[in-house]
Amino acid sequence: MAKDPVCGMEVDESNAKHTTEYEGTTYYFCCEHCKMKFEKNPKEYL
Ligand SMILES: [Zn+2]
Prior knowledge:
Elements: E1 2-3, E2 10-11, E3 18-22, E4 25-29, H1 32-40
Antiparallel strand pairs: 1-2, 3-4
Zinc ion binds next to loops.
């Protein structure tokens, strides 16, 4: 399981629909909303 850096929820990588890559690392999100928040300001969540 990966952790959604925005809300802290656990995300199943094999079934993840919402992912983004930042500085060479793939991040997984529970929903489009968390993904958008992360992409706006990734540093806030790392
Ligand atoms: Zn989330």
